[in-house]
Amino acid sequence: MEGIVNELIKGSYDLHVHSFPDIVPRKLNDIELALEAKEAGMQGILIKNHHVDTTSRTYLVKQIIKGIEIFGGITLNKSVGGLNPDAVDISLKLGAKEIWMPTIDSLNHKSKTKKKSGIYILDEKDKLKKEVYEILENISKHQVILGTGHLSLKEIFALIKNAKEMKIEKIIITHPEFWITFVPIEIQLELSKYGVFFERCYYSSTLSGDKRVDFKWVIECIRKVGPDSTIISTDLGQKGNPSPVEGMKIIISELLKNNFSESEIRKMISDNPKSLVM
């Protein structure tokens, strides 16, 4: 199986990886990550950080490591001003490929982790806040990815409905198996009607502490919701966990063991993510 895995990973994309520099320990720095992914034959990676825009640093990495696409984006947490249209505008002008709604600073994340005063994207009438509309307008203009971050289901539905009305075509439901952002299968099926992609992440489903889900749950979600709307990412980069490349190989192995065809796997790790960043 190792030979098949090594062949399948060629041309793949991981649209959710963490690397150093960061304020938390990471397994690899940007250059080490890009080099490892290139050596495995991967086509591209998208670096995520919860605290700073990663777009500028990807430009520098690409000057050093050739032969692989390196993408960045911005997560709308407090350190960049939260729901900050100006920060989004600058990031997009620098070439951002994904704009994530708040993650660790979202009200949903804060409440699930027993903390207070998180960012909520709806106003008192349950409509998107004015600044969210401004952000969506800019995402639509540039036709990049809108990531749902760690929002609640109520916020996600409001966000997606408005995003589709504003002609945003590239939408990712961020790790729907993660306990903080957990989306039941029946709700995933409802969301799939909007033409969104579901980001199945190795770390956030199977390595995220005592509230993790069994990978069998991820398999069930893919089977019921479908490979056509699935992208496989790792969400790896933490010290002590497998590297993103190692994690991607583990996922490919698990998919093969669960009788997914090579064409279905390529769709989830190569074709679908490529359509979102190219």
- CATH class, anyone? Alpha Beta
Query: Could you give the order of the helices and strands?
Result: HEHEHEEHEHHEHEHEHHEHH
Q: What is the percent of helical residues?
A: 40-55%
> Termini separation (Å)?
30 Å
The name of the CATH topology is TIM Barrel
Poorly predicted residue ranges: none
**Beta-strand content:** 5-15%
Question: If you had to describe this structure to a student in words, what would you say it looks like?
Answer:
The chain has 278 residues and is an alpha/beta fold. It has a single domain, classed as Alpha-Beta Barrel (TIM Barrel), CATH 3.20.20. The protein has twelve helices and nine strands. Strands 4-5-6-7-8-9 form a six-stranded parallel beta sheet. Helix 4 runs parallel beside helix 6. The longest helix has 16 residues. The protein is globular, with a radius of gyration of 17 Å. The mean pLDDT is 95.
Can you lay out the helices and strands and say which pair or pack?
Blueprint lengths: L1 H7 L4 E5 L12 H10 L4 E4 L7 H10 L4 E3 L1 E3 L9 H9 L4 E3 L6 H6 L17 H13 L2 E3 L5 H13 L5 E3 L11 H8 L4 E5 H6 L7 H11 L4 E4 L10 H14 L4 H16 L1
Parallel strand pairs: 1-2, 2-3, 4-5, 5-6, 6-7, 7-8, 8-9
Helix pairs in contact: 4-6
